[in-house]
Design brief:
Blueprint (H helix, E strand, L loop, with lengths): L1 E6 L5 H15 L5 E6 L1 H4 L9 E4 L6 H10 L1 H7 L4 E4 L12 E4 L8 H9 L3 H20 L2 E4 L2 H11 L4 E3 L6 H6 L6 H7 L7 E5 L9 H13 L5 E5 L15 H10 L5 E3 L8 H6 L3 E4 L8 H8 L4 E4 L2 H7 L3 E4 L4 H13 L1 H15 L4 H15 L5
Parallel strand pairs: 1-2, 1-4, 2-3, 4-5, 5-6, 6-7, 8-9, 8-11, 9-10, 11-12, 12-13
């Protein structure tokens, strides 16, 4: 089977994580030849087996230019590769694919009323206009594709209600314990110093994300202020980003979040570690006590699985997908209630037996996610659409 993977939309975060883990597993299949189209800026961040044919899209393209190039130029590449099937890995499908097409849909923002309300409240009207146009294309893409794969059952249900389509299946994203814990290199001295800067009595919280609006940083900050002011807690919230405009990907504005920290007087409680390479992240998780997330839109959330693998109890916003991924390894709160979040953290900090039970449940749950299993299920879908070559 000749597989063509359109990975040109993967430039950061979950897109790169997906390709980094899935492509090597596909390359190990004796009966599959993989051709990967990728953005040249992302090419340097990834390495692939020599058996994978890598094609780079044109440089310097914006999202609109890339979409047009995919629609009108990529079909010729797919034909030249004699592809039996196309895997579109960036939420958007080819309208007229020369091969049966599987769409990977993994952006819950296109369905999120909270995100629309958030953009309006922030007066991000340009971003809102772009959001509406991309949402329309994402919705049409599900119609164009022969099958859509989503990373959770919760998101499958949302996509089905949104589009009226029933050719949507759930395949959980994976997690590779050996790879995640393999690198035993110490963190850079500056990062390690920040992790060790708090007192031995401090409650150490962690949130892994670059800055964006839908991860709802503001609710986290207000909860930290409540823990400090109302409950007298010595608390540190470690972030794997920096709230400065030059270090924030995309067009999300960080000034408001930075100003809120100053307004709440919690500058010493928020520790901005900056970007941490994925291979070293386990050191950060293990230096903390509780993983927290207040996201109001998610489709899977890899850091939840990473946190569970590191035996961190989780406090998560009450989203259906969070409950699906974490089950009994987390306690849940209203996503826009810093009061509930602070109370959950406080309860967890005071009950050692509860923490131990959640840590054990999380470690067991993390082993239920596997990239090899993900690829096996994905190949099953592919083979159901395309008869194998002789």
């Amino acid at each position: 089977m000749r597989l063509f993977v359109n990975g040109t939309a993967a430039s950061a975060g979950g897109g790169l994580t997906y390709l980094r883990n899935v492509i090597p597993h596909l390359a190990r299949q004796d009966d599959v030849h993989t051709t990967l189209a990728i953005d040249p800026n992302a090419r340097g961040q990834l390495s692939f087996p020599s058996s994978v044919t890598v094609l780079e899209s044109p440089r310097g393209q914006g999202a609109g230019q890339r979409f047009l190039w995919e629609q009108f130029r990529m079909p010729a590449q797919i034909k030249a590769a004699e592809a039996d099937i196309l895997l579109s890995a960036g939420n958007f499908a080819l309208r007229k694919s020369p091969a049966p097409q599987i769409l990977l849909s993994g952006n819950s923002l296109y369905l999120s009323k909270d995100f629309v309300r958030d953009l309006r409240e922030r007066r991000e009207y340009r971003m809102l206009a772009e959001h509406y146009s991309r949402s329309a294309l994402a919705k049409r893409s599900i119609v164009w594709a022969d099958c859509t794969v989503a990373p959770s059952q919760a998101f499958v249900r949302e996509l089905g209600q949104w589009t009226g389509e029933n050719k949507i299946v759930a395949i959980h994203h994976g997690f590779d314990h050996d790879t995640f814990f393999r690198n035993q290199t110490r963190l850079p001295a500056e990062t390690q110093s920040k992790l060790e800067s708090s007192s031995s009595h401090a409650l150490r919280l962690l949130f892994v994300s670059h800055y964006n609006y839908y991860r709802n940083f503001e609710t986290l900050f207000r909860a930290v202020a409540l823990l400090r002011q109302n409950h007298g807690k010595d608390v540190k919230l470690f972030l794997t980003c920096r709230l400065s405009q030059g270090e924030s990907p995309g067009s999300y504005q960080v000034k408001r979040a930075a100003a809120l920290i100053a307004e709440l007087g919690i500058g010493e409680n928020i520790v901005q570690l900056g970007h941490i390479p994925n291979s070293l992240l386990h050191n950060v998780y293990r230096a903390c006590q509780v993983y927290v997330t207040a996201s109001y839109a998610e489709t899977f959330a890899h850091p939840l699985v990473e946190a569970m693998a590191c035996r961190l109890p989780v406090v998560a916003s009450d989203l259906t997908v969070h409950r699906e991924i974490c089950r009994d390894a987390a306690i849940y709160f209203n996503r826009f209630s810093p009061q509930e979040l602070a109370q959950c953290i406080l309860e967890l900090s005071q009950r050692q037996e509860m923490r131990e039970k959640m840590s054990n449940a999380g470690e067991v749950r993390s082993h239920e996610f596997s990239w090899s299993r993900h690829v096996e299920e994905l190949l099953t879908v592919m083979r159901s659409l395309v008869p194998m070559r002789a």
